[in-house]
Design a protein that fits this description.
The protein is an alpha+beta fold. The chain has a domain of 101 residues: Sandwich (Immunoglobulin-like). It contains 3 helices and 8 strands; from the N terminus they run αββββββββαα. Strands 1-3-6-5 form a 4-stranded antiparallel β-sheet, with no helix packed on it. Strands 2-8-7-4 form a 4-stranded mixed β-sheet, with no helix packed on it. The longest helix is centred in the C-terminal third of the chain and has 30 residues. It is rod-shaped, with a radius of gyration of 56 Å.
Length: 214
Amino acid sequence: MHTPAPSVPNNLRLRFALLLAAAAVIPALAAAPAQAHDALQSTSPAKDSTITTAPEQVTLTLSEPPTDAASLNFSVIKVTDSTGATLTDGKVSITDATLSTTVAKGANGPYKVLWRAVSADGHPIEGSYSFTVQDRAKSSTALDPAPSTPAGVATATTTADPAAGQSVPPVPGPDNSNAPVVLGIAAAIIAAGAGLFALSRRRKASRNTGPLSG
């Protein structure tokens, strides 16, 4: 005589199915952190820092190196200064997990860094941060006021003289080209006067010594 197999309660079957599902999910969950995207570990200049000299280079270090050299085609580091001017040329170099780019000189104030890279799992990652440049040499040059003049002190005029620096022409001397003529006339007048004076004296003398009467 055949004896039927004992039936398994439904609640036991359900528990067994849940255990099998959990056994399959747990390894996947354990492997998930290894497949997570890379993260930005550090930057130079540091995030939210204030530096006294504009940087010549900006570097970003990820938690893992990019997958391969082809990642360079998708890596971007763009740096702008406080005026909005772009200070990078678009060229990014990668050494291990560090990305870097050269930076041109910019104005004082906040700098913004926009970046994009390729995670070790092949997925793109991106972000942004800022730092501040406060170069005192630039500030003093740009903001130094003109020296003030103390009250009560007269100031010299600053009007430019168009003739300044040019040689002054000599004052022309008197024109003596007619001097000989003038001297000749004067000599003639003197000579005529002397002749008239001598003639007058002779006539007077002849009157006084007229012919003797008999």
